[in-house]
Amino acid sequence: MRLATDAMLPGARGLSGPFGCLNEARYGIVWGAMGAARSCLESALERSITREVFGRPIGANQLIQAKLADMLVEVEKGILLALHLGRLKERGALTPAQISVGKLNSVREALRIAHEARAILAGDGITSEFPVMRHAANLESVRTYEGTDEVHQLVIGRALTGLAAF
Asked: What is the pTM of this model?
């Protein structure tokens, strides 16, 4: 399609303009996925303290505490990665491959956390009383748009090897 010169993105050459927009969206997803993960963790933590089985909170069980601890570790790592990427972005040193690392990791881990939170919540985990299933559904769609896991793996692979596989 032919467009008038004034319809072109200012300063964009080739696909750099649209890909620049994608990278901005992908960077935002890094933070958003961690927000969803934190919400799921908070729901599971709250419920583990208030839900009693056999006369005591389920949070008093080692398995539940181990799950909560693992969830917290992944949330904290994801937030630290997002912060690191943000600092690179502020300096103008953030690369597309680094953004791909952030999106791929954040969405993957947020989904794992949502699934663990749903398991801790048991039957309550599928109700609208808790935000876990809503976050899980949203994260599944986020996993697909702005580049699937496989696309980000190829971006990272190209950065590692110097060879394009797509």
From this structure: 0.87
